[in-house]
Amino acid sequence: MKSNKPFLFLIFLFVLPKIYSQSDSFFYGSFETNGVYYQESESLAYDKKFASNSYLNLKYNLNNKFVFDLQTESYNPQPLQNYSDLLEDTFVSTFSINFNTNNFNITTGTIYEQFGSGVLLRTWEDRQLGINNSLLGIRTSYKKQNLSLVLLGGYQKKSNTISEGKVFGFDSEFTVYENNNTFNNLVVGLSYLGRLEAPHYVSYPFNDLTNSFSGRLDYNSDSFYSNYEYVYKSEDGIIKDEVLSETFVRSGNAHILNLGYFKSGIGLDFTFRRLENMGFYSERVEFGNPYFETTLNYLPALTKQHDYLLTNINVYQSQPNVSFQDPSIMKAGEIGFQFDAYYNFKKETLLGGKYGTKISLNISKWNNLKGSYDYQNENYDLDFLGFGVKYFSEQSLEIRKKWSENFSNIILFVNRYYNKKYVEDSFGEIDSKIIVFDNTLKLKNKKSLRFELQHLFTEDDKKNWFGYGLEYNFNFNFNAYFNSIVNYENEIAGKPTYSNFGVSYSKNANKLILSYGKQRGGLMCFGGVCRYVPEYKGLSFSIISSF
Question: Within this chain, do residues 176 and 285 fall inside the same structural domain, yes or no?
């Protein structure tokens, strides 16, 4: 898997353009590089040093039958902060050959796949989080009318190596009812995933092969949808104090229910999820690692994903794992829900005004599983629908209003509870309220100005924060921004301030971003999945290009 001299990349680079002239074939790809010069860093290994992550992806489509894919990555002179230590130098990261004909598809090499909602299996890439948990192996699929089948197997990517555990499984979907006139359909899905690993570092009372199964039922109509999925994972060892226990052995399971209703101007969505011991890795010892290496499933936090600096302080991470840190912190997973409501007040009404008004409400609540926990004997007995110690709760209201042809704004209010002791295995509880005013003024000649104000109110933890931001768009291609947040009531740290200035230029499929400033340390989240980023001050740039 590792290659310091990417010969395959050179073959693609020089050979494929010669074939490019074929009428039904085409060559395309993308390039991305992200670099930072760390003027100051929380990590001494990066202080006054440069680091970069670069990705070159090349694809060649041959007669719409074959797709050749190759990605090389480079981490020189070192990867960005808090990326895996295994990422170094330049190497071929992923490569695959995909063949598709009629209803049949086969892929050899790098595999990206998702079974159901992803609670059983999801392999994907997210460069901002440093995640690429793809499989290296073979995948076949067959789709025809009301039937879809997938069969796969291989070894999982682990930075620039592969994991020791073997992964194999299948996924199936059957449309048992469909009415195109009323837009109704009912789909049943069944999946299996096996992880085979013989831990040589411990004697154990569980099987080398861990079996997991899921069943799901999806119903959709023209105004209503619902889906339910159940997942079961067979008995496996629990990681305790970063060691695979020889005595703590439990099975795992998950329940996910999603309901939704939508009509013109209104939308409702409700999700309930219960996770018990659902951490799943192709290598057991990687359980809970901060880089998500060898993680097999996708368990995002089901909370509102916010866009503002202060709303991304004390964000929630899903808690799917059994964790017995000490007798005062014992967890077996999570139980909770998220509810979203959207409503559009029509134009020329009392609350809609001349241009209409959009409001959205989000409510989420997540708790430990309620039950009796025995620290001494490494055991627990859980209530199925019992809500234990609260991890996190949030209620947010967002109002989007256009006041004139040239002026609009967003008002956001967030009420949040965050149990730092249980979510971070730390100490303390934080009650906070956040308010945001985001205003946009359109100017002449495609120019616009955006100005935002933010405030976080809390008597806990680091106390109150204030923030503001300015963004000026010269046109659709070029903009500049400045933002700053101040922890002005933090008496211990001396009112820390985090300010940043940046510019962005885009043209066709190319984009350049340049910024300078001080970044707050903490969790950075994308799609409900988070990783910790150390505090630093420095010059950053990104170049993104597709061709």
Answer: yes
